[in-house]
Write a structure and sequence with these properties.
Layout: H1 2-10, H2 28-36, E1 40-49, E2 55-65, E3 71-72, H3 78-83, H4 87-102, E4 106-107, E5 110-111, E6 113-117, H5 120-124, H6 128-139, E7 146-151, H7 160-172, E8 175-181, H8 188-193, E9 198-201, H9 203-206, H10 217-229, E10 232-235, H11 241-249, E11 254-256, H12 268-275
Parallel strand pairs: 2-6, 6-7, 7-8, 8-9, 9-10, 10-11
Antiparallel strand pairs: 1-2, 1-11, 2-3, 4-5
Helix pairs in contact: 4-6, 6-7
The structure holds ligand C2E and magnesium ion (3 copies).
Ligand C2E binds next to strand 2, strand 7 and strand 8.
């Protein structure tokens, strides 16, 4: 069962992912050393406007490239970083790298935003929003060109620090997205309380889509709700033109997935972005 789970997760990489060797036990000191030795890299995956095909934003996805070339997926070290108190340092590096790289991105004459995933530990940290805004200012990036992705099960709005961070970010113009929407603790009450701009429909809702006339009541309901709330929607994990057509015909504004590009250090989309800049 474990092997099956690992396979399922590693399919998300678009490259060979090797499980850490049996003897490899990562700890907080490993992560700190890896940061010093610059073993972390960001890959970027394009998010396209489904109506026009224009790249609208790109999501930053972190990977750990070990000295032997082995690539460790984020699912295997983000939680470890949180547990060992190194997530804030790692998160600072991720934010700084992502916002600096986004400053040069354009497509069809329009600036392209960067989407960065926030971990629960970062959202809980009282200095998080301030640090995000400092990175944005250092890079001279328009705040609207940064999107922070939140996974609902990773944070609680009962926490004063979390609420303060989200208000500070929204006040500054940084956009907020709910990631993996429809899984975990999706709460409509929370959606009402948060100043969210974007809903990302989890890949698990998109994968079963094969037929152009397939009734997909939950996806249809999410699209209607997002429309009523005035939110943009990104469908995650689009792998086939049929899935893209289904979503476009039903008013889904944006899509992300292998159909448009796998996460890569210099995704094909980035080459296009740079050319038209
Ligand atoms: P996520 O934010 O929901 O990211 C989307 C995941 O789906 C990525 O996996 C991406 O490679 C994969 N994916 C995209 N399109 C497709 C597709 O068409 N088919 C399939 N099968 N998979 C697709 P990845 O990069 O392994 O990241 C996994 C999770 O790790 C992310 O889920 C996110 O929750 C977390 N993560 C990644 N980078 C960061 C980071 O910088 N900071 C934090 N805190 N978490 C991160
Ligand atoms: Mg995400
Ligand atoms: Mg997601
Ligand atoms: Mg996820």
């Amino acid at each position: 069962a474990d092997a099956a789970i690992f396979q399922a997760k590693s399919r998300g990489y678009g490259q060979t992912v090797t499980a850490p060797r049996g003897s490899t036990v990562h700890n907080g000191a490993d992560i700190r050393r890896a940061l010093e030795d610059q073993e972390f890299v960001l890959h970027y995956q394009p998010v396209v406007d489904l109506a026009t095909g224009t790249v609208d934003k790109a999501e930053a996805l972190v990977r750990w490239v070990r000295p032997d070339g082995q690539i460790v997926p984020p699912d295997q070290f983000i939680r470890l970083a949180e547990q060992t108190g190194t997530m804030l340092e790692l998160g600072d590096w991720i934010l700084s790298t992502a916002v600096h790289s986004a400053t040069t991105w354009h497509h069809d004459g329009r600036p392209v935003a960067v989407s960065v995933n926030a971990s629960g530990a970062e959202l809980q940290d009282p200095t998080y929003a301030r640090r995000v805004l400092r990175h944005v200012a250092d890079a001279a990036l328009a705040p609207e060109r940064l999107i922070i992705e939140l996974v609902e099960s990773d944070f609680s709005l009962a926490s004063r620090a979390v609420r303060a961070n989200l208000v500070t970010l929204a006040d500054a113009g940084v956009r907020l997205a709910i990631d993996d929407f429809g899984t975990g603790h999706s709460s409509l009450h929370r959606l009402d309380q948060l100043r969210v701009d974007i809903l990302k429909i989890d890949r698990s809702f998109i994968s079963p889509l094969t037929d152009p006339d397939q009734p997909m009541p939950v996806v249809t309901a999410i699209l209607a709700m997002a429309d009523a709330l005035g939110l943009d929607v990104v469908a995650e994990g689009i792998e086939t033109p049929e899935q893209a057509d289904w979503l476009r015909r039903r008013g889904c504004s944006h899509g992300q997935g292998y159909l448009y590009g796998k996460p890569a250090p210099h995704p094909p989309a980035t080459a296009v972005l740079h050319r038209s800049a």
